[in-house]
């Protein structure tokens, strides 16, 4: 999507420069060529906006379905409002080049044609582009609401000292997730990628056996140094040396399985 945006931006700059040069010319052949080039350019831009709009909506539906369900009407209208006017304008310019009768009708009603062109095909895309700023407003309101809910829970619920020490990370994690979740769709590439990687890490950790986590295994640096400060719970077990012997209670150290204490 970023590559497409850069290509569209460069195309518009080149087209505007080329348009300025040919507008100063009074040659009718060059003006006719300008009309067909303008039509093709608007058709390409409209198709590009349409494709990127569908891709963005599909990505939001796949990874951020609650946000898509809440704003799907606005997302659909924005995609239509940015692509259809450009396609219609390109089709009109192309028809003027290939149909002399249509071009004569346009010249006979030039004032009406320019007014409708400006109102429907210029202001509508600009309006939908400005409406995309609403996603920033939604993000800010959601972040504020999430922070208020977290603060309310902290005041209402009496937590232990260990839970109080982990509270700042909880707040920052929730705030970061909410911020990434409600970024504008066109600027959500990096945020969505990080969220997807985090979800994959959570899925992998959830597949570990019950009672085990990544902390139980320690890091490579900790194994290399031989020191692991991670808390390792002891696991009690009953051992029978023979069928007739008395059961003995042994405590296995999860950090050092070779060290056991028999009771």
Task: Please describe what this structure looks like.
The chain has 263 residues and is mainly alpha-helical. Among the domains are: 2-132; 138-190, no CATH class. It is built from eleven helices and three strands; from the N terminus they run αααααααααααβββ. The chain has a three-stranded antiparallel sheet with strand order 1-2-3, with no helix packed on it. The protein is elongated, with a radius of gyration of 32 Å. The termini are far apart. 11% of the residues are buried. Keywords: Membrane, Transmembrane, Transmembrane helix. Residues 200-263 are annotated as: Disordered.
Q: In a few lines, what is going on in this structure?
A:
Residues 200-263 are annotated as: Disordered. With 263 residues, this protein is mainly alpha-helical.
How does the SSE layout of this entry go?
Elements: H1 2-23, H2 28-63, H3 65-98, H4 100-108, H5 110-131, H6 134-156, H7 161-165, H8 167-181, H9 189-206, H10 214-217, H11 220-225, E1 234-239, E2 248-253, E3 260-262
Antiparallel strand pairs: 1-2, 2-3
Helix pairs in contact: 1-2, 2-3, 3-4, 3-5, 6-8
User: Strand share of the residues?
Assistant: 5-15%
Morphology call: elongated
Specify the helix fraction band. over 70%
Number of helices: 11
The helix-strand sequence is: HHHHHHHHHHHEEE
Instruction: Give the strand tally.
Output: 3
Spatial ordering of strands, largest sheet: 1-2-3
| Poorly predicted ranges | 167-192, 210-263
SS-based class:
mainly alpha
Largest sheet: 3 strands, antiparallel
What's the overall average pLDDT, rounded? 66
The Rg value, from CA coordinates, equals 32 Å
């Amino acid at each position: 999507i970023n590559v497409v945006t850069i290509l569209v931006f460069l195309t518009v700059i080149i087209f505007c420069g080329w348009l300025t040069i040919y507008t100063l010319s009074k040659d009718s052949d060059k003006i006719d060529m300008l009309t067909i080039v303008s039509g093709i350019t608007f058709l390409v831009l409209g198709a590009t906006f349409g494709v990127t709009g569908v891709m963005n909506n599909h990505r939001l539906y796949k990874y951020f379905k609650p946000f898509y369900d809440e704003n799907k009407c606005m997302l659909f209208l924005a995609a239509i409002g940015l692509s259809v006017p450009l396609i219609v304008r390109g089709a009109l310019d192309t028809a003027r080049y290939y149909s002399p009768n249509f071009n004569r009708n346009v010249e006979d009603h030039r004032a009406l044609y320019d007014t409708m062109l400006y109102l429907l095909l210029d202001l509508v895309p600009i309006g939908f582009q400005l409406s995309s700023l609403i996603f920033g407003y939604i993000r800010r309101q959601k972040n504020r609401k999430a922070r208020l809910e977290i603060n309310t829970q902290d005041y209402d619920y009496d937590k232990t000292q260990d839970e109080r020490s982990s509270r700042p990370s909880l707040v920052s994690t929730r705030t970061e997730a909410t911020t990434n979740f409600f970024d504008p769709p066109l600027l959500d590439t990096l945020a969505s990628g990080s969220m997807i990687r985090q979800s994959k890490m959570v899925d992998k950790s959830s597949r570990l056996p019950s009672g085990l986590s990544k902390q139980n295994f320690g890091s490579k640096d900790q194994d290399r140094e031989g020191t692991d400060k991670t808390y390792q719970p002891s696991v009690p077990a009953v051992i029978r040396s023979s069928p007739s012997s008395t059961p003995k209670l042994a405590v296995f150290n999860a950090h050092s399985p070779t060290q056991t204490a028999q009771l």
